[in-house]
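Sequence only, no structure available. Ideas?
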Amino acid sequence: MRIVSGIQPTGNLHLGNYLGAIRNWVRMQDENAAAGGDTLFFLADLHAITVYNKPEELAANTREMAAALLAAGVDPAKAILFNQARVPAHAELAWLLFCTARIGWLNRMTQFKEKSGKNREGASVGLFAYPVLQAADVLIYKTTHVPVGEDQKQHLELARDIATKFNTDFETDLFVLPDPIIPPAAARIMSLRDGTAKMSKSDPSDMARINLSDDDDMIAQKIRKAKTDPEPLPAAAEELNGRPEAKNLVAIYAALTDESMEQVLTRFAGQGFGAFKPALSEALIETLRPIRERFVAMKADHAAIDQVLEQGAERARTLAAPVLDGAYKALGLQR
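Reply:
I predicted one. C-alpha cells follow.
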C-alpha cells in the first residue's frame, strides 16, 4: 500500500484537530509501516492559497502544523512528511491534468458551491479548480489508497476519472487509480460553550476550545467552566440526544480513552458533572501533556522543522519524478 493524505496548515491547533485527524494519521503510519507500505503526509500550503492568507501567517502556520504532527507522533522514520510547495511536481502535474479534466466535472463538485457561497464570481480560479490539484497530489505518487471522509469521496472519484481519461487518451498505464480508505470514525469535537457548533480556532472565546498549547491548569479550568446541564449522566448513549453539551463531553472522554460512549456511561451513569468533569480533566491532561511539551519545544525550533520538511520533500521529489517525466512524455512535451 502507498497511502497519501494532506492537511491544510492552520494555526491555533486544538483538541478537535488532534482527535479528529492527527491521531488517525499516527495510527495509519504505524500500521502501514508495519505492513511494509509507504505513507506520505503533506501540509497543503498550495491549497491554502486558494483563499487569501497573509504570507507570514501561512509560513508560521505551516511550521506550527508540522510541529504538532511531529509532537503527536508522526514519525519521519515511518512516514514521509513535507509541505507541497517544496515538491513542485504537485503544481506541474496539476497543470497537465487541468488539460484533461473537464469543466463539467468541476461544475458538479459540491464543495465549491459551499465554499464560494453567494460570491461565486468573486472566488479564485484556484478555489474552483483545486480538486484537480488534489488529483495531482495523489496521482503523482502512484498512490494506491487515500483516506477520505464523506465530504471528499467526490474528489477522489474525480481523481480516478482524470486518471482514466489520461491513460485512455494517451494510451498509457501511467496513473494508478487510487482506492478510498474510510478511516475509523473520527471523534467530532464540539465547542465547550455550544455543543451544537464544532470546536474551532475562529471562535471568539478561547474558553470554547482546548488548545494544544494549553497548560494543565488551563485545561482543568476550561473543563470546569464548560457548559453542561443539571441532569445526571444516563446509562445509554441515546438518552444524551437533546443534550448536546453533555454528549460532547462524554464523546471527548470516550475518544481519549478509546472507549465507546456506552462504556463511559456505564461507569458514570447516575453521576453529575461535578464527578465527571474532574475525571475528564485528568484524562485530557494525561493525554495532552506530553504532546504539548514536545509541541511547545518543537515549534520554536524553525531550523529543526525545516530540516524534517526538506528531508521529507527530497524523498517525495524522488518518488514523484518518474511519474511527472512519464506524463510529459505521454503528452509529447519536450523538456
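The longest strand covers residues 2-7.
Hope that gets you unstuck.
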